Amino acid sequence: MSNKKMSIIVLGDAAVGKTSLLKMYDEKKFQPAHMATLGLDYVSKNYLPPQGGNNGKPVPVKIWDTAGQERFRTLTHSFYKQGHGIIVAFAVNDMTSFEHVGTWLASIKEHADPTVIKILVGNKVDLEGERKVSFQEAETLAKANGMKYYDTSAKTNLNVMEFMEDLFSQVYIEKLSDSPKARD
């Protein structure tokens, strides 16, 4: 089936590096300063499923970059239902952004499909000396919510490709493939 499309939503507080993660994934470059996302933006990519999945054809992927500011939340809620996968991002040097992960997960539970694939991403690990959230704390939270966790750095490209490919693979297998799991 070549009409398959994947939709991914990136959520998290303002200034945790959501746009920087997407720029690194999409353009392989880090911009130290950029304008805050206003409302929504997106990146289009293609995902080639392994072992000849999708008849060897790439699956178009739209990755929605959402604004973290409170005033844009009602706008982003309308996109939750369309999402096959959701990335919840926080900054490891910002305990408040980590504490808000629970709020983001509650919002997902309220507005998204209950079977949406979620992944937790702690960004800015390049600021190790300023780290406020340990890997263990984040991984424990992720596991408690049925998610995988990745320490990442948009600046150094640490685990950016890895978490994206992992999420795409999970979404493809569980939501888009012809496997029995995807048909449930």
For this entry, give a set of tags:
alpha/beta, 6 strands, globular
Protein model, in words:
The protein has 184 residues and is of the alpha/beta class. 35% of the residues lie in helices and 22% in strands. It has seven helices and six strands. It has a six-stranded mixed β-sheet, sandwiched between helices. The longest helix is centred in the last third of the chain and has 17 residues, at 160-176. It is globular and about 45 Å long. The protein starts with 5 loop residues before the first strand and ends with a helix. The model has no long low-confidence stretch (mean pLDDT 88).
Can you lay out the helices and strands and say which pair or pack?
Elements: E1 6-12, H1 18-27, E2 40-47, E3 59-66, H2 73-80, E4 85-91, H3 95-99, H4 101-111, E5 117-123, H5 135-144, E6 148-151, H6 160-176, H7 180-183
